[in-house]
User: Fold this.
Amino acid sequence: MGATNSEKKITRRRPPRFELVAGAVCLDFINTLDDRFSSKPKELLKTYIDLARFGEDTGILSELQVDRLFARSEMSPEAARKALGAAIELREAMFAVFAAIATRKPVPPPALMRLNQYIQGAAQYARLVPARSTSEQFATKKSGTEKARFEWRFDALPSTFEDPLWPVARSAAELLASDQLAYVHMCASKSCEWFFLDTSKNHRRRWCDMTKCGNRAKFQRFYSRKKKSSA
Ligand SMILES: [Zn+2]
Assistant:
């Protein structure tokens, strides 16, 4: 894996490559096992670097945090590999929880227990800060009509391999405890079944991504109709 420095810089400036269509970081994380129900699922988290990049693409980690993880994973590849294994275990526990909810089945307790371990871990690093509009209000001492809002931030992470997992676990905790949970669906495409949060106005979204699975289904319907009419 002897990549030169110049190569590293090029890969660092690549465009985002995770398709973040789920509407919630925790669901995007579950979707990192692509084509989950096909005969050949595609693992998008092949190395620890992929996990760090997920942190970068989703914006849950800063560039500096990701740089540190990149460097650390090169220094301790074995520890990074183990951390990736733990991350995948967490992902599969989250999958079990959300899949049970989406299909109206009982949530498996071991999966919820695993997720809870990370949610508890996340609590030690989460900091509540005024959301941007609120902090601007404070700065200008304006008494706006909008009520103050706050958000969770993970800007003081300890720079360990688990860094990306805390915001992911926090995202799952927030979604699971919110009214939005009713709008967590799995893509209607049989091979895809990515998760997404349906924030559309009438809550009738069926596809993870219209341009991907939605169009594919549309073409399939079109061709099967054409076949029938020409038969
Ligand atoms: Zn899909």
The CA atoms of residues 75 and 159 lie 14 Å apart. The beta strands are 33-34, 42-43, 127-130, 150-153, 184-186, 195-197.
